[in-house]
Batch of 4 targets.
Target 1
Amino acid sequence: MADEEAQIRKLQVANARPEDSGRGLAHIPRTLMAALGLTEGDVIEIVGKRSTPARAVLPYSEDEGLEILRIDGLQRANAGIGAGDYVEVRRAQSKPATRVVFAPAQQNLRLQGSGEALKRSFFGRPLAQGDVVATAGQQRMDNVPPHVAQHLRAPAYALQEIRLAVIQASPKGIVHIDENTEIELRPEYEEARESRRADVTYDDIGGMASTIDQLREMVELPLRYPELFQRLGVDPPKGVLLHGPPGTGKTRLARAVANESDATFHLINGPEIMGSAYGESESRLRSVFEEAAKSAPSIVFIDEIDSIAPKRGQVSGEAEKRLVAQLLTLMDGLEARANIVVIAATNRPDAIDEALRRPGRFDREIVIGVPDERGRREILGIHTRGMPLGDRVDLGELARTTYGFVGADLAALTREAAIEAVRRLMPRLNLEDHTIPPEVLDTL
């Protein structure tokens, strides 16, 4: 029993660097590696609400001496935990997989193609049924041992990162894909098991480190640890207002907070909630809050809130005034411990009714501005994470020359680069065929 306990350690979870996202690595203390008899690249099991495997590597230089485990957002979702939680870490063994079934991890994504292409992307990668994994592109492998890096240099499955759910894995337990593994790729999303959503995590948000910290204080802490505020004898925050230029990632940030908080996400698009019949808009608004209460903990995200809550003194229509009054009533009616937080976004904060901006409704206002050079470098790294980049691509130089670009602009830039690569490939394609030869894909 004592030997078994010695093979298990508890560590506090922290975020990995953005460039490590989707690679299945776990940075653990040197002392733990020695205690468990691990060398870099060995398989470990991370046990939270559920278990997930990873390959152990040494800690970042700034983490030397700290008892923390750094993993990415997908791994946190797979283990059912968040940053700051404690997990058990133990040595594990992976068995060769005889059969693995993948499916898209997003409901709006449909894939076509051979599962054999995935063998190159996930060759040697430890995984378990129920995990969500990402196809990784050809990235830098700094501070990664060569025998680990060879598993991470596989060609990307596509010109972008794709997240896949492991629907089935045989045999049971932790497995790895080898040359004899049969791989099936199902075209549409399937629910593998009840697990935390991983479509967007903090790893997918660039240039917003301080903003994420503020939102964690205002949103994630009350949803995950409501007892903190009960102990302090104060009500948790009810709402947060995000404002900034279009395309800066306000909606994406709200989704990431919901996923990392293990909360259900309820989206209200301001212009779409307006109805033509008397009382229809108010009814739609009430129904969203009712659904949020049933599925708590919940985040209600109101996009373009200025369109449904303008200053009542500046509008002549009674419908708009009634809708503002309904939103005020719903915000005031949120029980202190209902485990619901409202996040709203706008490009025009001065156009919102003043009553919504007082404490007790939207308790904090956070400005999301245009990213600086460092932020643009992070965003470019995120959007090119699954791309097979050429040796001459310098993301740092691109970040310097894209002054004034927001996240949406940089996403469009990387998308145009991918389209240009496809355009160069077009003369080599036979459009009558329904598949593209692997040797042609490898030239991208």
Target 2
Amino acid sequence: MDKASIIGDAVLYVQEMQMQAKKLKTEIAGLEASLVRTERYQGSNKNPRKTRIAYDNNPICKKIVQMDVFQVEERGFYVRLVCNKAEGVAVSLYRTIESLTSFNIQSSNLTTASERFILTFTINVKENEKDMNLPNLKLWITGALLNQGFEFLTST
């Protein structure tokens, strides 16, 4: 094997290990959060402030499984987001659409299906935004989701 292929293999291995570490951290955070909720429910916690701090510091695993964006009018768009169902995810979804200040939100609907949230909303581009098209809107929405801590799952 030449040096380049060894280095390439090493880089891939390190990336895989980083992804596994991230998944494990998320899983641990979820387990700790469920333990805190159980203790709170059973009333076995002696220090509620400590529990609240521990609960607030746990990262929320927010993953976008699917994003569909359709242009339905000249300045109107329909968006459908499918993501995992976890505590705090719905709030982050709505913070995302509220952060889209170049658009008027016409309607939104949040439903659950199995272990997923499905958020659909319709938006109109504000008059001061001249060059808004479907690819640009997808970039705006993707950026807003990333700012709220969402990750995008890609099928391989």
Target 3
Amino acid sequence: MTFLRTVESYRQGARTLPGRYYTAPEVFAEEQERIFRHQWICVGRDASLAVPGDYVVAEVAGESIIVLRDQSGERRAYYNVCRHRGTRLCEAPKGRLSETIQCPYHAWTYALDGRLIGAPHMNEVEGFDKKAYPLHSVALYEWQGFLFVNHDTGAIPAGQWFAPLKDRFANYNLPLLKTVRRIEYDVRANWKLILQNYNECLHCPTIHPELSTKLPYTSGANDLIDGPFLGGYMEIKAPNESATMTGRACALPLGTLPAADQRRAFYYALFPTMMLSLHPDYGVFYTVWPVSATASRVVCEWMVHPDAPAAAGYNIQDAEEFWDRTYLRAFEGA
């Protein structure tokens, strides 16, 4: 890994985008088509599909997508519409299916592997073949326990997309971490402002003074990584052990970390809508869901070592309160 201290990375000539890129509906509509229909979009964690039949529903670029685990244990993603009349199949944001998905309109029924297995009265239609009407699938990829979808069948292969991050977070055991908390924020700001705010801390001394007592903003270093990623680390200021209200570690270590990383917090944006924060004792991942040109929804999920909740000293609320205060000020600023 190659890092460059943030204070040494400033470049002459950098400019922000014109204001209309953060407020104009026509720009937002173009982003949906040119960005969100062609990029790998995080829709959650693989752990949310714990057993066959588990599913989640996500809306990406105006299209509803079902992500599920089928009866054989394979992950799959489909457009959330029946092949008959386009009725939405799953209304709930998550749940557990038995062995099929049934349309609530005309009862067309699909196996979890997408096959149409029931179509009432269609046997009376000459030439009708159920094999010709499976659910339309969506590209799905698992990276480090996170699930990504892509509308574009001709997109850059996910393995190539994520290749620059290979082994970046190996010490943190990301696929094994346990999600212990989920918080959602409705933010009156364009999605790009949220990503931009996350990726710089020059505003921290004025907007987040309590953050600067734990993570001095001048301690940052940028990861000179290739690809659609931006990130690096900040040093945890002694005698603090983590970014919490008390400054103490709130859970077991996420993994076996090198000595230097035991004193660092890592922050990465995986464009266009995922952010990943890793501290020695807990992690948080965020998905940003664009609602309009001036509104977004941010979903935060807290992760700890799977043995942490039962261990002595566990106090994830210490970290939650610290970041909840930080988020609210950041979102007000955005």
Target 4
Amino acid sequence: MVARDRSISVMSEPNMPVGVFFTWSMDVACKKLGLTRRHGADIEVTDNLSEVENSDLTIFGVFGPSEKGEGSSTPLISGKAKEYDSKFGSVITEMIEESYETLKCGSVVGASTPITRIVNDGMKSSVCVMGLGEEREEVSEKSMAKLGAAVAAKCCDCNAKNVSFVIDYDLSNSSFSSFVAEFYDALHSDNRYKTRDVKTKAENLELLTIVCEKGMSDEALIEKAIKTGRAYAAGIRLTKDVVNAPHNVLNSESLAKAAKRVADESGGTITHKILGKEECEELGMGAYLGVARGSETEPRFIHLTYKPPSGIVKKRVGIVGKGLLFDTGGYNIKTAMMELMKFDCGGAAAVLGAAKIIGNIAPEGVEAHFIVAACENMVNEKAMVPSDILTASNGLTIEVLNTDAEGRLTMADALVYADREAKCDSIIELSTLTGACMVSLGKKICGVWTHNDDLAKELEDVSKTTGEKSWRMPMETEYNELLKSKIADLKNIGTRYGGAIQAALFLQNFVSEDKPFAHIDIAGPVWDDAKGATGFGAKMVTEWVSRQGK
């Protein structure tokens, strides 16, 4: 029995050779954002152990010891692994006898040590053992995701064509989609801007066969899990591609076209509306347009709307992402690390990546509005300067004391739009907003600010499920006094201390007081200095949206 799915739509560039990309001429800005392709390897699921005979590499999953000292003190080899071990002279037992105590979830035995080679009908097959976690440990989405990444890493190491993963799990549960998503995500290679020394991860890999003991109890669920996992991988890949793109490729126009493709490839579940400068002016978006005046390309206000296939809507939610496609700081120009400021669109990237996923998995009961006010924060003769007064679309006036606190200005109008135009019941917003949040929480955890305890609990649960770490931060209303201007309703910065809290309080002014709203600062985890964009936020948003219709 075999379960296979190839139906997921991908945002690829079939006619774009490696190393060829669209960039500026002297007079015309880039109009197209090239995107990476999904790795071409397929995934099959079977309960037939003989399938491993066709594999170049077979990875056997084995439970490790309990950290509490409970359970077996010797390797727990069961199911298909035990059958194979008996057939080939206890090769698995011998491999892990000395390493059993260090066998954790996702760790590999036979990776750094010589891999046993089994000769079978003239064919050689490499064998290694991978830890599945502790005995009797609940199979969580987090552990399955870790295994997916570990299997992909092993495929990259050996560069095999056909790989089998033998696992004593029931794959007819939702956590298997996490394995698939992380497997493909770990194989992601961004070679868009290279012409030489181009390296593709596991470039020879064609097939991963998962051999499971009892995973074929519901083939339909397995096929759905594979499709869902691929959808997640596609969305995360899009998120990374947007953040990794340089400024001379990514601008408001090229991002808007990428957003339109998300809608076009959704199978009809997502529609798009792209507002230009005149339409934004008609809506009174003075805060957003104040920042956009410095951009080379005209502003593009992106609004994607997802509606469930059944047409039944229990809740309407809004997801707003900060879309600063490059941030020089404006006239309060940045004096260090400006080259990293392409990641200031991390919120927008996560929102579009989540929209890509939602369009493919099509959750019922929820209508979702994905909103991005896209522009750059640049310096020219039109750009805003310190002391300017901007008027947001809800009528509030804002004194600009620092042009490098521009993201909250663009999102002010985006939040008003989500509240009043899209009429969302609840709203979350993601942004790479403050260095202050990074000082507090580091580079692995995002901060969550909300007055609504129910929404805070929802986001906490989502964070635990997806593995994207978050921490609820205080909304100290006393700090509102620090945002009051002498000549306008608000000023865009407060004092040095408590800057992340003040930013959240500023944004709260643009959402109705009685409406659930959360500000999520992803400045830390959106970027990894060694690897680049992490794709952070796409899974969190997707999981939160999916739960709203239940």
